[in-house]
Amino acid sequence: MNDAASGATPKFAIVGAGPAGFYTAEALNAQCPGCRIDIIDRLPTPYGLVRSGVAPDHQSTKAIEETFEQIALQPNVRFVGNVEVDRDVSLDELRGFYDAIVLASGSPHDAPLDLPGAHLRGVFGASAFVGWYNAHPDHAALAPDLDHAGAVIIGNGNVAIDVARVLSKPTAVLSASDIAHHALDRLESSRIADTYIVGRRGALDAKFTTAELRELGEIEDVVAVADPGQIPDAVGDDLPARERRIKAKNLECLQAFAKADPASKARRIHLRFNSKPVEILGRDRVEGIRFERTRLVDGQAVGDGTTYDIPCGLVVSAIGYRAKAIGGLALSASADRLVNDEGRIDSQVYVVGWLRRGPSGKIGTNRTDGETIAERIAQDIAPAAKPGFNALEPLLLARGVTWTDFAHWKAIEAAEKAAARTGAPRQKFASVDDMLGVCAPAARAASS
Ligand code: NAP
Questions:
Q1: pLDDT tens column, 267-302
Q2: Ligand 1: residue whose CA is nearest its atom 30
C-alpha cells in the first residue's frame, strides 16, 4: 500500500458488523496502521449472527462480543448502525467515499424448500425461526403455533440441532438466557413433545459437530433417540484419519441415542436419517410431512420409492442459507455467495465471511478470512485522499437517516441489561423503533 507516497490516510468501509466484519477491521488495522475504518450495519446493533444467530442458550459463544467491542473502541474504528446499503446509501456512493469497501453482510435468506406444501402455515425457514427466538427485528412477528405434539426439522447441520434444543429445553432453563421474551412466552405453553431432526443422507454423513450432537443427550427432561437400524456399528476405514476420528465421535453419541428409552422422559428429540422430504401435508396449515427413504449412491441421497409420514404441526427447514445481492453485484449460481476471486470483486470492492465462501464454518473461520483480505487490500490499494465518513455523514443527514454509533449501541445494551429477567443477561429489543427510542436523542445530539 502506497499511503506513505501519497500522504493520504486510507479509508475503508466494511458493510456488515458480524464476525467477518469485525475480524476484517482488526486485520485492516494491523495491515494499515493509521487507516480509518467505518463498519456499517443495517441494524442499530452490532455483532450480526453472534447476536441473532448463535443460540440463546450458548452464551459462552457470545462472549466473543467482548473481543469485537475492543475492536470497535479503537479510535480509528467507527460503528455506523441503522444504515443499509442499497436503501440509505448505494455501493457506488461508497466507492466515491472510501478507498476500499469490504462486504461482510452474510447470507440472510433461507435456501428454498422446493416441495409441494412448503407454502403452508406452520412451515418456516431456519433463518426466520432462529431470528424469531433471538429477537431479530425482521422476524419478531413470526408467532409460530406450538400447540401441537410434533415438530420436524429438515436438515442435519448444527442449525437443526440449535432449533431442536430451543424447542425442547425446559423454559425454566431458557429463561436464564437472552432468548426473546415473545419466544419464551410461546415456548412456555408449547405442547411439542416430539421433535424430529431428519437428514436425507446417512447417520455418518450428517454435518453436526460432536459437541452440539452430544449436548442433545444432556438436556434436562429430554431424551435423544435414534433408530438402532440406522446407526452403523463402526466408521468405514476408507476415510482420511481426521475425518474418521470426527465421525467416530459422532457415532459414539448416536449409538448412545440408539440405546436410549424414548419413554424415559417427557420430551424426545428423534434423529432420523436416510429420509428425504417429498411433500408437506395439510390443507391450509401443516399437518405432517412425507419422506421418501433413501440410500447413498455416489454420495447422493437417492430415493428408493418407499415413503412414510411424520405427523406434525411445525416444520423448520434448516437446509442452509442464501446470500442477498448487494450493489447490483452478481450472485453465484447457487446464490449462496457473491461471485468473487478469493475475496476480490473488483479493484475497490472485496468480500469476506459467508458472503465470500457460502454459509459454512465457525465464528473463528472468519478471522482467517479477514486476515487474508486485509493483506490483499494492503497490497492492492493506493489511498486517494477519499473523504470517508466526512462525506457519508452529510449524505445520511440529508436523507434523514438516524444512524447509530457505538455509544448509542452501548445505550441500547444498557437498557437491555436493565430490563433482563432475573438470571438472564439481557432482554433484547425486538424492534428497531424501540432500539432507537432508547438512543435516538443521543443520535441527534451526536450529529448536530
Ligand atoms: P449445514 O451444516 O450446511 O447443514 C445443512 C443440512 O441441510 C445438511 O444436512 C444438508 O444435507 C441438508 N440439506 C440441504 N439441502 C437439502 C434439501 N434440499 N433437502 C433436505 N436436506 C437438505 O448448514 P447449517 O446447519 O445451516 O449451518 C451453517 C453453518 O453454521 C455450518 O458451518 C454450521 O456448522 C455453522 N453453525 C455452527 C453452530 C455451532 O457451532 N454451534 C451452530 C449453528 C451453525 P446434505 O449434507 O445431504 O447436503
A1: 999 999 999 999 999 999 999 999 999 999 998 999
A2: 360
Contact 155 CB / ligand 1 (< 6 Å): yes
Q: Is residue 372 located within the same domain as residue 237?
A: no
All residue ranges of the chain with pLDDT < 70 are 1-7, 441-448
Q: b vs e for 74-105, b when ≥16 Cβ sit within 10 Å of the residue's Cβ?
A: eebbbbbbbbebeebbebeebbebbbbbbbbb
- Ligand 1 atom with the shortest distance to the CA of 212: 41
Last residue of a domain, one of 268, 303, 321: 321
62 Cβ inside 6 Å of ligand 1 = no
Q: Give me ligand 1 centre to Cα 339, in Å.
A: 21
In whole angstroms, give the CA distance from residue 115 to residue 200. Answer: 14
Q: Are residues 338 and 301 in the same domain?
A: no
What total of structural domains would you count in the chain? 2
CATH number at residue 222: 3.50.50.60
Q: What is the pLDDT of residue 244?
A: 93
65 in the same domain as 199: no
CATH number at residue 327: 3.40.50.720
Q: Both 299 and 367 in a single domain?
A: no
Atom of ligand 1 nearest to the CA of 113: 18
pLDDT for the residue 239: 87
Q: Report the pLDDT value the prediction gives residue 236, as an integer from 0 to 100.
A: 86
Mutation test residue for ligand 1: of 50, 114, 158, the one with most atoms within 8 Å of CB:
158
Q: Kindly compute the dihedral angle of the four CA atoms of residues 63, 129, 360, 73, in this order, to the nearest 10 degrees.
A: -30
The domain of 181 spans: 111-321
State the Cα–Cα distance between residues 141 and 133, nearest whole angstrom: 10
Of all protein residues, the one whose alpha carbon is nearest to atom 14 of ligand 1 is 319
What's the CA-to-centroid distance between 32 and ligand 1, angstroms?
Answer: 36
Amino acid at site 190: S
The whole-number pLDDT of residue 174 equals: 98
